[in-house]
Amino acid sequence: MKIVGPFKQIVTLAGLPLRGALADEDLQILHHAGVLIDQGVVVKVGDFETLKLEADQVQEVIGDQVLLPGFIDCHTHICFGGTRANDFAMRNAGKSYLEIAESGGGIWSSVQHTREADFETLLKSLLERIEYLKSIGITTIEVKSGYGLNLEQELKMLRVIQKASTMTKVTLVPTCLAAHMKPKDYDSKAHSDRTYLEYVLEEILPVVQKERLAKRVDVFIEKSAFEPKESAEFLSKAKQLGFDLTVHADQFTSGSSQVAVDAGAKSADHLEASSNEAIAYLAKSETVAVALPGASLGLGEPFTPARKLLDQGAILAIGSDWNPGSAPMGNLIAQASILASYEKLSTAEVFAALTFRAAHALGLDERGTIERGKKADFVSYNTDNYQTILYRQGTLAPSATYINGDLHYGDY
Fold first, then answer.
1. Is 381 exposed, middle or buried (0-12, 13-18, 19+ CB in 10 A)?
2. Could you tell me the sign of the dihedral formed by the alpha carbons of 370, 39, 59, 50, in that order?
């Protein structure tokens, strides 16, 4: 067994409830502590000198360090080709979504860029983004398709994600988002008058399942994408096929989060436009409410009503939504820190939303806290106070990222 430490503070996040509001006083903070690890799993957490007697190997850290569970980004679109910098500039200059789309921008622009990119180009750029996320302490990343929008191209994206997962120690969780929008080149008559969602169900998802490319399916419910009724039918059929569900919900108009809850989705993501009725409905459900502050920052839109969701008892997670259009920043910690300032979230609520609550959104409850039996994924910072991490709003870089108890970023 190996011990890592001593840490000035270990913020274990153990013993906290899955849902609802949290106070910083609820946090378990261990001092001069270490983590005993065996085969990538936490065995014990406690006083460093005491646990050191049980270890075969000691990995000592230098200076004051604070240790937390590895962060989990439960919503990203980081497999893509091209850029949409012009979209961002046009949006800031006052152009509407429709005007940008009509000028060749929007999601369809990313679809074209991604279709044009070959397998190796997409793989290289995806691995570079994974390395960046690992450098800021993220050890589990959900990655969506959705810029292919036909059988060949969706499979290309998912195969790229699958290949990348064999080339990194970071856990990648693939999600099929073939239902991102109806592609402009979809011809229903060429597909026996089937709707595009029927095409996804009958042609794309069976191959995804056969090749084990993803166990999760997503759909974007919005006026610019798919209507609630057809989306509900799509989700029901995808669930019957054996897929877990997640939904792009309530981004610009409220109501689709109820579709997500009724479908039994693992999460409803975005929620910037959620009404009080939608918040109450979500809060009573088992569906995780995922805030995506990166999209609010990228679009200049309101933030997810995180405070209301927590106060009513919802399970709140925070993801980056890193994508080439609406959320190009990619820095989950900076985004969460900013969301905390606007929504008045405690440090405990933010850390929970980035760790075990985000893990729950992905069905990965074996990680997200530092306690016996959990996956030994951690992030450490060179500071003597855990509060400094959010105080610095993403500018305090981690000193180390551990995966399965091994150092995968940083150097002591």
1. buried
2. positive
Q: How many whole angstroms separate alpha carbon 282 and alpha carbon 274?
A: 10
Provide the pLDDT for residue 105.
Answer: 87
Residue 412 pLDDT class (50, 70, 90 cuts): low
Res. 200: pLDDT tops 70: yes
d(CA 153, CA 390): 39
In total, the chain counts a number of residues equal to 412
Picking from 356, 312, 343, 338, the residue whose alpha carbon sits closest to that of residue 28 is 356
- Check if the beta carbon of residue 217 is closer than 8 Å to that of residue 146: no
241's enclosing H/E stretch is: none
Write out pLDDT tens, residues 318-351: 999 999 999 999 999 999 999 999 999 999 999 9
- What domains appear along the chain, each with residue ranges and CATH number? 2-70+368-410 (2.30.40.10), 72-361 (3.20.20.140)
